[in-house]
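Model the whole thing, not chain by chain.
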Amino acid sequence: MLMGDSIDEECDYLFKAVLIGDSGVGKSNLLSRFSKDEFRLDSKPTIGVEFAYRNIKVADKLVKAQIWDTAGQERFRAITSSYYRGALGAILVYDISARQSFENVRNWLRELREFGNSDMVIVLVGNKSDLSQSRQVEEEEGKSLAEAEGLCFMETSALENVNVEQVFLDMVYKIHEITRQKIL
Ligand code: GDP
């Protein structure tokens, strides 16, 4: 589906979520793994991001999730407030085999809290769980950081397709829950 299409017609509502984290942690692989055949990756070169849509049935509603990826812009610290604007969810990714990407999670969180919605659903993801031989961040560390910061947490492997679906779906369900409470 292209950006210009009338995307709202066939779903009950649409929301935006963003992928963030250091370069090389696996963001675009997570998104393309999640997209499978059901997704179509589109890009909007003018703002240097890529995004994908997916329709997800939650209770009796059809929700269209629009997931934004940085398309490598984070490398140049070129992520701007427009990237976060209107996002109801964020998937903050680090690489369990790269300590520095975990250390940088706090910087990404600071940026998220500065530019993002205050009630944004944030999922912390330790990707590349298949690389157990070169693990530099223990699962417990990810878990306790998430607990301390009030985030959801999961380890994933985009390569082996472990927990990828779960991460995106959990985020969608949580966003749906928050949105529903606001409407009621
Ligand atoms: P991005 O810069 O965050 O979008 O990262 P990419 O998705 O481009 O991935 C960076 C590199 O990590 C690529 O060489 C991927 O093949 C590799 N990669 C991504 N996810 C995994 C994973 O779950 N396991 C392993 N072993 N490699 C991965």
